[in-house]
Each structure stands twice: as C-alpha cells, then as structure tokens.
Amino acid sequence: MFDSIFADGELKQFLLSKNENTKWINTPFEKYSNLTTKTKGEFGELFVKKCLSLKGHHIAKRKNSGHDCLVDNIKTEIKFSLDGVINHVSLYKDWERIIFCFIKQPEEDSLIIYMNKDDFTKHMSSGYSVFNRQQGGKNSNNDDYMCGEKDLILLKSTGQAKCITEWIAKNPSKEFIITKRNTIEDYAI
User: How much is the pTM?
Assistant: First the structure.
C-alpha cells in the first residue's frame, strides 16, 4: 500500500522540502535532525558541557533532577537549539543559572547566554516576558515555557541575560578571566 501512496512523488517531495537537516549537510550537526526529542536534549547538554569544559569551567554531575549539571559548583539548567526555538523552560525547577545555546550558521553567529534564577524570576513576573507558555496558553498554570532566538537576543539587550564569557564561578580561581562584550557579534561562542 505504501508504494502506491508514494507513487506520484508528491509525499516524497513534501518530506524533502520539510527536512530541516538540509541546511546542516556537511556540518558536524548533519545527523542531529534524525535524533529523537529526548536524544536531542541529551546532545545539547553534552555539547554545552563540552564547550564550557574546553573554556576551563568545571563540570560535575547534577545533585537532583531539577537541573542538568553543576558548572563551577552552580546548579545549571541547559537549553539548546539548532532551529531557533527553546522549549521546556521551567521557573520552579531547582537551578541557579540557566544557559541558552543557539547554534547557527556560520558558526560565528552562534550564541550562548545565561541568566541567574533571580533575574529570570523578575523577568517572568514583569508582564513583558519573552517566554510564552509551552502548552495551554496564557490561561494555563503549567510551568513550561518556550521562546525563540530573537526573543532571547531582545532579552540579552535588557541586561537580564549575559554572555557566557561573563560567567563567574561561586568561588572563582585567580586564573579565571572575565571579558567584556560590546556588540551582538561579541556574544558568539
């Protein structure tokens, strides 16, 4: 039966035109779109952990399911996107900082920013949040939010989110260097 349904080529063409993977062909992310949703999340966490580790940050296992890991002894939640949408951001989980990682092409346009829990809480209660409820709309009581890349660039411009290069450990070592950034291009990985 499937052969006859696909015979005229319309469904095959539809699948090819909707395949997000085509823009990532011949990149390290070529197979990403083939992953399950859960595995995409695991990949994103691993990617960010490796990135931070290469920058000299100490990564440790999480203390509970309310965050993804400890970065420099700070409970950290990680959100990763290859398509410009961040999903499943929760205010009431047990994290101290949340990292948002957007991968773009060219690589220099990629963005990794973070927020402290206090700043995130203030932003969410401001009435002007860039985050929308993931399910159920504004009238629901769930703790599940989403946003797009442009929303977080706007959020970054308010000073509530910071470039990952501004990350300061709870007990920074003398070797830890902080750099200041001035333009949106400076917030690339």
Answer: 0.80
The per-residue pLDDT for range 13-38, each reduced to its tens digit, is 887 676 666 778 888 998 888 889 89
Contacts of 68 (CB under 8 A, 6+ apart): 45, 62, 76, 77, 78, 95
> Between the CA of residue 167 and those of 26, 80, 172, what are the distances in Å?
32, 17, 10
In this structure, whether the domain defined by 40-187 belongs to CATH 3.40.1350 is answered with yes
Residues of the chain with CATH 3.40.1350: 40-187
Distance CA 99, CA 86 (A): 11
3-state secondary structure 18-35: HCHHHHHCCCCCCCHHHC
Q: How many CB atoms lie within 10 A of CB 141?
A: 6
